[in-house]
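Revision sheet: C-alpha cells.
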Amino acid sequence: MADLLRDVQVELRNMITTNVKDQVSRAYGQQLVAIMLLVLVLIVSPIIILLVRKIALTMQNFTEMVAAKTMEISREKKKADRLLYQMLPEPIARQLKGKGQVPAESFESVTVYFSDIVGFTKISSQSSPMQVVTFLNVLYKLFDSRIDRYDVYKVETIGDAYMCVSGLPSRNGDQHASEVADMSLDLLQGIQKFEVPHIKGQLVQIRIGLNTGPCVAGVVGTKMPRYCLFGDTINVASRMESTGLPQMVHVSDTTHELLAKTGGYKLEFREDVEIKGKGSMPTYWLLEKVGGISRALEINTPGFFDANQLPEFMNRDLYNQD
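Predicted:
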C-alpha cells in the first residue's frame, strides 16, 4: 500500500513539474514576444511621428499654397473685372457674365455728348503718329479723370471724337441733361490753357454738341463686345457737335428744354440750324452754370507738359517719347 501511494505521489509530482515547466516556457515565450513588440514599437514610433509631422507640414504647405493661389486668382479676377467694367457698363458686364448675352433695351430719355478737336487734321499733318497718340492719350486721360465725377458713361473714342451719355444703362430721371451739361463745362474749363505737347503755343480747342431724346442700347459683337447706342438722338448729337463752334457747347432744343426745367443754367439762343436729315432746328449755346460747377476738378493745366509737374494719373513714359 505504501509503495502504491509512493508511486502515485511520484506520478503527481512529475505531472505537476511538467505542467509548471510548460507554463513557465509559455510565459517566457510570451514575455519574449512582448519585449520584441515593445522594441519594435520603440523603433517604429519615431518613424511614425516623423512621417506624421511630414504629412502635417505637407498639408499645411498645400493649404497655404491653395490660399495663396486663391488670393492670386481673386486678384486676377478683380483685374479682369476692372478691365471689363472699363469696356462695358458694370450692370451690363455683370449681366453678360451671368447670362452670356444682353438683350437690347429702349430708353425714353438720355442725353448724348459728342466732342472733337478743332483742327485735328492739321495737327496730325504736322505730327508723327507717335506724337498724335501721345497727344490724344494725355488729353483723354484728362477727360477721363474729370468725367468720373459725373453720372455719365463713356461710350467710346474714335480718333479725336469723344462720346459720352447719361441716363443709361442706369436711369436717373431728368438729371441726365444737367450731368452732361456740368461735365461739358468742366471739360472746357479743364483745357482752357491746354497746349498740344509737341507744338509750343498751340492751344487745344474742342467743339461740343449735346442732344436729349430716346435711344436703344445693347451689346454688339462677341469677340470684342461693345455697348452701342442707336437712334436719331445720337445722330442729332453728332450734328450739334459738327455744326458748333470752338470752345462752345452747342445744345439742341430738347436739351435746352430739360436744362431750363432743371434751372441754374445760362443759355443763349443761337439760331435755327440746318441739320442734315432733320431740316431746320432751333439750337442754343450753353454758356455757364449759375454759381459755377461744384464738382469741377481743379488741375493746374498750364503745367501739364512740364515733365516735373505732370499729374500722377498721366503716363510719363508715353509723354516723354519723341
